[in-house]
Specification:
It is built from twelve helices and 14 strands. It is α/β, with parallel strands linked by helices and about 350 residues long. It folds into two domains: about 140 residues, 3-Layer(aba) Sandwich (Rossmann fold), CATH 3.40.50; about 190 residues, Rossmann fold (3-Layer(aba) Sandwich). Strand 3, helix 3 and strand 4 form a beta-alpha-beta unit. The protein is elongated, with a radius of gyration of 20 Å.
């Protein structure tokens, strides 16, 4: 993209439009071309202004934000950053928005004043800039769906078998496409997805209701078992430790690593140390380079490593960084990754 990123702000609160506009307008790479108090006005502004990115409040008057997003992603696909509150309801609605094709979510600070937002200005600016480079597709190509289940093949009894996945921007939908096809006997999976607190709980619950495997938000000290998926809480690091013959989750607070908490690098480094060659590392769509060094560490420890191909990434950032560093053994489009994970784990079983 050349020139400044053109942004349309859609929010029913005049104060919120002013705050968001001031933050985004302070960056020389962003131009706020317009604002709208509701989706009906926004619809006309989109036609007239042709913005590169739209920020959209989750709860809107005159037309529900989700209904409006669905129309946008069907008729005029564009990068959308949802603006949500850190409430249970806000998390559920925003998860649906991400499934409908929204690129990212910005959570309103608990202190929703100008000062409260100022502390998160860089986060909002980074999310808008990342969204501007996202590859969005019409809703029909990525609407929420029940993916076909892969055939049950091998029961993975060994706690040594472990799959570690890292993702960020666009990862909510990508993870659905990886997890939903898996059979109930799949090897255990640990996931770090960059996602706000509370949203990770809602995300895990939604996946659990759709998938054949069990999906849960990881808690500290859990034994990792086959047929289960463990997702890092949105404000805690997730690592893997060995306890005798068993693998155990380690969920803990701590400083940001590479600007992130949870950090994909933290997860991958721990899996490299705990599992060595008995693991599969996967890095999916995301902005930045979190996970690149950790995936390289996994590969050096003998693990098989996969990266999502640029053709299916919403943002080809993290997989690209990992590939260029040498951490990715094979790049694949998203649709081929679930079967490849199972194939690699079956091969481990044959050789162990």
């Amino acid at each position: 993209m050349t020139g400044r990123i053109r942004v349309l702000i859609v929010d029913d609160s005049a104060l919120m439009r002013q705050i968001l506009g001031a933050i985004l307008g302070s960056d020389p790479g962003i131009e706020v071309v317009g604002t709208a108090p509701d989706p009906l006005v926004a619809r006309e502004k989109i036609k007239a202004l042709n913005p590169d990115v739209m920020t959209l409040d989750v709860e809107m008057p005159r037309m529900d934000g989700l209904a409006f997003l669905e129309k946008v992603m069907t008729l005029r696909p564009m990068p959308v950053v949802m603006v949500s509150s850190l409430t249970e309801h806000g998390a559920e609605v925003t998860m649906k928005a991400l499934e409908l094709g929204a690129v990212d979510v910005f959570c309103k600070p608990t202190d929703a004043s100008t000062g409260g937002f100022a502390a998160h200005a860089h986060e909002l600016i980074d999310k808008v800039k990342g969204a501007a480079h996202a590859h969005v597709r019409p809703l029909g190509n990525h609407a929420p769906r029940q993916a076909p289940k892969l055939a049950v093949t091998t029961i993975y009894k060994s706690t040594d078998r472990l799959v570690a996945i890292g993702s960020s921007t666009g990862g909510v939908e990508a993870l659905r496409d990886v997890i939903l096809p898996l059979p109930p006997d799949s090897p255990p999976i640990v996931i770090t997805q960059h996602i706000p607190p509370r949203f990770s709980t809602s995300f895990a619950q939604r996946l659990d209701g759709l998938a054949a495997v069990r999906v849960k938000e990881a808690a500290d000290g859990e034994r990792i078992v086959a047929g289960h998926v463990y997702i890092a809480p949105g404000d805690r690091h997730l690592a893997v430790r060995r306890s005798g013959a068993a693998l155990i989750t380690h969920v803990y607070d701590g400083p940001l690593v590479g600007g992130h908490k949870p950090s994909v690098d933290v997860l991958f480094h721990s899996v490299a140390e705990a599992c060595g060659s008995n693991a599969v590392g996967v890095i999916l769509t995301g902005m930045g380079r979190d996970g690149a060094e950790g995936l390289l560490k996994m590969r050096q420890a003998g693990a098989a490593t996969l990266g999502e191909d640029e053709s299916t990434c919403v943002v080809y950032g993290m997989p690209k960084a990992a590939f260029e560093l040498g951490g990715v053994e094979k790049e694949l489009p998203l649709s081929r990754i679930p079967d490849e994970i199972l194939r690699l784990c079956r091969d481990m079983s044959r050789t162990s």
